Request: fold
Amino acid sequence: MSWVADNVDLIWALTLDHLRQSAIAIIAGFVLSVPLGWLAFRYTRLRGTVLTVVGLLYTIPSFALFAVLTLFGIPFLSELNLLVALTIYAVAIMTRSVTDGLASVDPGARSAAIAVGFGAWRRFWTVDLPLSGPVVLAGLRVTAMSTISLATVGALIGVQNLGYLFTNGSQRRIIAEVFAGVVAVVIIAVIVDVLLMLAGRALMPWTRRTSTPRPGRLRAVTA
Amino acid sequence: MSTARTRLAVALAGTAIAALALAGCASSDPLSGDSTDSGDSSDSSTIVIGSQAYYSNEIIAEIYAQALEGAGFTVERDFNIGQRDAYLPSLEDGSIDLFPEYTGNLLQYFEPDTTATTPDDVYAALKDALPDGLTVLDQSPATDQDSYNVTAAFAEENGLTSIEDLSGIDGLVLGGPPELEERPYGPKGLEEVYGVSVTFNPTADTTVDELVAGNIQVGNVYSADPRIETDKLVTLEDPKGLFLASNVVPLVNADLADEIADVINAVSAALTPEGLVALNVESTVDQRSSEDIAKDWLADNGLS
Amino acid sequence: MNLLAEAFAWIFSPARLTGTLPLPTAIAQHLAFTFGSVAIAAVIAIPIGWLIGHTGRGREIAVFLSGAARALPALGLVVLLVMLFGVNLKTEAAVTVFVVLAIPSILAGAYAGIESIDRSVIDAGRAMGMTEWQILFRIEMPLGLSLLIGGLRSATLQVVATVTIAAYVGLGGLGFYIIQGINLRDFAEILGASIIVVVLALVLDGLYALLARFAVPRTDGPRTRARVASSPLTRVPQFSR
Reply:
């Protein structure tokens, strides 16, 4: 693993780039999916269509999306192309989570808010969104992991991030380089996931007390 | 309610700070400068150097970069862009200024029907074929062209010295990058020029491994690849000029050419074919970084 | 759109039936990789998932490992394994990667399916004197089938899109055209091949939808909460609840 020791600077620089690109896509995806998910939730007639279309986006192979985006004037080999594509994938995953989350809010709480006199805007920000938090957060964690690993494809369209270690290592046949890339991606994905989980605990302290009922077993009654 | 709001505010502030911090840290990246895919770079005295997504090309680009920096220029690196079809537009519109290229392949890109084959003919034809705004500096004696190779054992068995000798053999499988299928010197060219029929297997980076393992018989290997020597491959001769001579040549923005000609021409002159193979060995076998390899090479050749 | 028209022209051009990799062959290779990998992943993940669901143990580890597996970059992993296994075991290396990618969804489908069953049904089974194995096969499997199929569906769609990477190490499939297209900057080729991948995904999703319909057992009222699996195109497996 001496290659890794000699190239720590390179790996670190690529990691920062990778994090920056992923963060932009995840945040942008989240921001876009909230109104979209809310629309799907609010207008039940639209729900099926919106969710299906959005879900379909995720099955599009990344290269295809890069190619299609050039039709909108985005240069094929550019970071912008990668970011837009990653954002679209993030929206594809997150929208359903937002819809599910809003749907999971106790209707009683919502009615109570209406009864007390909250307007729609205030209700959304102070009741619906916070209460849908756990579901939304779960979706966000999946999105984050998915985006971080997907971003490596950028190497094939000339965007510098950890994916460079794969293509360069493949050419030079340096196993340590490719391995370092894989490990780095997994590590930062896991770190981001843990950070999100901790952020969830901090922002939604009420969830600490509720735990998903585990499937219990009455062990005593085994035949 | 105030605690919830405070929490939200803190979270948003935290995210914003983290994002800014990342953006700040990430700008000091040794591999690439700012994304220069559209429009010119802001500072006209900065030279933007690009490279192909090919480790050997990256080494040469790094040599150019350090040589220019040694001569007092400011350099921005935008490496590993991809195949020719993908980066030439950036050169033409000026977002990239200097690019290490290969004469023969570049000429075939602009003039697929060219008949030039020798190094000098190719170089002369290339100068004419380039669009306005682009020009080339002196070419280097170093070459790195596509070439067809077989294992030593296979060559002995079938008495092969040139591509022509392949024409009688059945069941030949040719390996190389996926786009080789469509290149003029690919399977179609083999058929037309030499009457050799092959099936194509897109082996990409595993070409040499497949050749050695016997899964393919003929492999497209770059002539500066050190594995030709280390794995005892035989490069088949090309009497009919299927491949054009392809020397390393600096492709530059015409406005910039005079400024950097002295520095870069000195580099080109000092780069020999054996020298280039040696550089590639340092990268693949010794696993050194392009930066280190370039620094040492420039020092050894008295050019830093 | 002009590019779309070109892409379709590319797909239906007679040249697609000749050359190194005729389109039908590429599709066949692509599907073979997909089904093979999902099948192997199912053989591994389903028993483990049932064990987790039945005993209620090991759920946290499974969730964590599944999550981590989602973070694995397919491209890097395929390149790495091909270099490690050697060029003669390219296929095995690629299949290993696809199997690893498919396992999380199938595992989640398996244990979620069992967890979704009303406890009182299982208790009733125990009260009737069923052994643990009988409970597994007669109660939990059938009732959990729809969520399991949902997991399989999710895994299949993910693998179908990722098999395009197999071409990076020369294994064919529809990814061959995509990579060739990128290197030649032939957008019609890239888009055409991608359209076929998406169509394959839709067809497979439709097949699973049919399968899910048959998997929903006849419900006798509020006892069983067998849920019809919605299409994973619109559902994200929630690993971390």
